């Protein structure tokens, strides 16, 4: 997993600083897993330094909170 995040970091630097977008994409993959981990763990695994940064970036890019995203996936 860490090697994937390092690749994401490199790609983000080369791609104009879209690191938050790439981390949110990774978080969405983690949130879609059948037995998701706690949000705090997923945020860390996706590369976010804090829950507030994770929450803010996710909501800004997706229009809903990570918890709401996970809940809508559980309902479907």
TrEMBL record:
SUPFAM superfamilies, from UniProt? Answer: Homeodomain-like
Ranges for domain HTH araC/xylS-type come to: 19-72
Whether Cell membrane counts among this entry's keywords is: no
Which PROSITE patterns would you find in this protein's record?
HTH_ARAC_FAMILY_1 (PS00041), HTH_ARAC_FAMILY_2 (PS01124)
Superkingdom per UniProt: Bacteria
Entries under Pfam families matching the protein: HTH_18
GO MF terms held by the record:
DNA-binding transcription factor activity; sequence-specific DNA binding
Q: Which UniProt keywords apply?
A: DNA-binding, Transcription, Transcription regulation
Q: Which PANTHER family match?
A: ARAC-FAMILY TRANSCRIPTIONAL REGULATOR, HTH-TYPE TRANSCRIPTIONAL REGULATOR EXSA
- The protein depicted here goes by the name HTH araC/xylS-type domain-containing protein
Q: Which organism is it from?
A: Stenotrophomonas humi
């Amino acid at each position: 997993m860490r090697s994937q995040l390092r690749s994401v970091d490199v790609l983000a630097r080369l791609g104009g600083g879209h690191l938050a977008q790439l981390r949110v994409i990774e978080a969405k993959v983690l949130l879609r897993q059948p037995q998701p981990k706690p949000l705090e763990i997923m945020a860390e695994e996706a590369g976010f330094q804090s829950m507030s940064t994770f929450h803010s970036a996710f909501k800004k890019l997706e229009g809903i909170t990570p918890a709401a995203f996970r809940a809508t996936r559980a309902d479907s």
